[in-house]
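Fig. S4 source data, part A: sequence.
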Amino acid sequence: MKEKDIVHVIPFFHYDTVYLKSYETYLETALNHILEALRLMNEDSNYTFMVEQAILLEEFWERFPEKREELKRFASSGRLEVGSGMYCMPDLNLPSGEALIRNMEIGKRWVKETLGLEPNVFWVPDCFGHHPQMPQIAAHTGYTSYILGRVMEPDMMTPFYWRGADGTSMLCERIHGNYDILVFGKNGRWDREIQSWGDDALSGRIRSRYSFLKPVHLSRNILLPNGGDMAKPVRLSIEAVEAFNQSAADSKTGLSGVEARFSTLAEFVESVREEALELNTIEQDLNPPRMAGANSSRMRLKQANGRLSSLLQQMERLLAVIEWQEDSERMDRSRWTVLRDRLDRAWKLVTFGQFHDIIWGTILDEGYLDMLRRYREAEELLQRVGRELSAELSQPAAQAGNDAGAIGFTVFNPSAYDRSEDYATLFQLTEPGIRGASVTRVDGTPVPFEYEEIRSEDGGLTGARIIIRDCFPALSTVSYQLRWSKEVQPERELSLEQAAAIPLWSLQASGDGFVFENAHYRCEIQSSGCLSSYVSKSGDTREWVAEGQGWNDLLLLRDTGDLYNYYVYPGDKEVIDSTVDAWRVYSAGNTFGNSGALSVENETDSTITLLARGELNWWRVGVAYEKRITLHKHEARVSFATSLTGHGIQYRVVALFPTTLADSTFMQEIPFGHIKRPKKEFAAQQWSMLQEGGKSLLLVNRDIPGNGCHEGTMFLALTRSVTMDYKCVSETSYEKGERFEYHYEIMPHFSSAAQPVEELQPWRAGDRLNLPLVSWIDGEGRVSRQVQGPRMDGESIQLAGFYSRPEGWMLRFYEASGSPKRESLRLNRSQPVHVQESNGIGDTISTGQALPITETASRQSLEMEYGGFQIRTLLLADARQ
């Protein structure tokens, strides 16, 4: 006998923290909806309810303490469920992989500690894209199944298995139609849509949904979400389920093999698993380029979120390293609780800003301004943490045996590998007559540096810029002492051998521009700040720049779309995404070939920075630009800092890098890995790259998610001036008169044959640009104690997170190249450490046995194996406890 089809009716409402209304306005409605859901659960013993995001339950818990026991009772009975348990429902492409995991950690920890629930169904029905590392990220944080919507083909069968980039396979359900497929309301849009389905009787509502869903379902268990955007829970749902089942009992309806029941996501998934179906497996990026416009809408939000995420990583890694070092001597770590709490608060603020509508920028003005306020609060918290950590590390110079008249300053490397680079620190001058300086490490060893005077507009000397050239050890601090001199800074004398070892370079004027040449390449820079030529000197000397075009060309495009999409075409009701199909909208809409004033703004021993200024104009639209092009004297890369100030509305600006790589492969970084993508615009993490044979062109960005390629031209989507007045007041999104600054780098690479991506190490180039070294100055002559954290060997093993918890330290790495590796983790600690494998939220996943540590006279180390793109999280604790 054929088993019945089960329609799993799951009451919920989709909660937008901020969208067309403010946070407080939505919150008031949402809290009342939860009160109504609890009333219905008390009224009907079959009724269940799902709350999407932990932030809403946290607010309810604080504002309705009298309902706490009721919440816990329904949670323990299995009738109250938390959909995914994330703190909020983020965009899945714009935040870093670590930020996504921390979102899950914050939310799931609260849900577990407060309600005793451990959600294992990843419910993300309103996310417009899912990259192929999401199966692993979800599995690594305790999820066993995945429910998504929007991005699949309408006729694609469900459920299915989704195999991710690392090989993780996860059971997935696609919501057919939309998550608002079954809504009961009064006199609203939902009712009009529901009536259009046909039979308006209560039983007919569920019957029509069943008829719509059944053809695309391989399982006899069918998911039917009962709710929509801020849709109020109503008793009509209960009546509809009862009416449907009564109708199904009538043999004339043809529904004798169907039953509707209130259910939960967990029950639905378990029922599907029990069927043991032969399901299809897909391996693909679920990221259609339809929402590409959102990559550059309201860039202020995206840049602030990226910058604060980096600052959070810097501060929490520094705190973890200090505790790691100090705990070797003392076991009381409770005194750090206040700083951990501040970091946790900052993570909540930053995570709140990663809610999909917020980080897209598709929100009303009130919500936009409130989010900027939250970011200011997060920044103030992190600045306080930084001041307290630097004060904690500082000690009187006399203790270190150094000159008390010197200025101490310290540099912290937040990466898990050594970084050899130039690092600049600004110093104020507090006494007249300073004309030079000397810099040493605290042991008196001289350090190579450059001294640059900083003068005010009237020519007065106000400070000095000290650029030190050193190797900064992994997850460690290095302290220096600066001594002012009233003598002119002497020229650095080099021996003949030293001079001969420095590669030659030259910069020569050429018309209105310059020609630059070093040991790696020769390039021509036009007066508009575009590179019209870049020729490598190693191996293949073909031109990299497409003929008649220029790198760092800024293109002004007409954009009549909204905060989501590009272009609205006359007569179309839908906003159509044309991405970059209409490149040359204006004949004068780009900077290449424009005349301008190109000058040398600054020069150091290792770089020359050129400055170009101009304006892009088209009728009433104007965008003033400043381009800073930094040429590295001894490297193949070129760095750019571009400032834009717009006037007018409905435009966008992209930075172009037209190449000669016509038959290339296009790759982009995604959270915890990289993938090949079509040559269109997508949200990338820190880099994208073209490869053709042995030639690779790497484009690294800082908080510029819109990366793409069009007919051999790589591009960055810098900014848009659009709004969505048809939905809400969003005038600030025009960003009239707002100044934005963008940082990016380009790096060609050539080898005689095709090489794996790890030869370029693009993840490290992205890491260096987005996670800079940190420094602090102590004007009282104090220097900081030297602290050192763990270090991972291996050029493709990237540190994702290192932070402290009361029970120990969380240490997360991932393999970035896509190839298996076996590497050594050096613990760099004198006291014994207990190490266990953990998932992303801190639950140990080993058998309880500590991972084997190799001990030598000089160090403790742990050999670790990684699959390609594999994420591994360790929980480390003092073995003496």
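Fig. S4 source data, part B ends here. The chain is about 25% helix and 30% strand.
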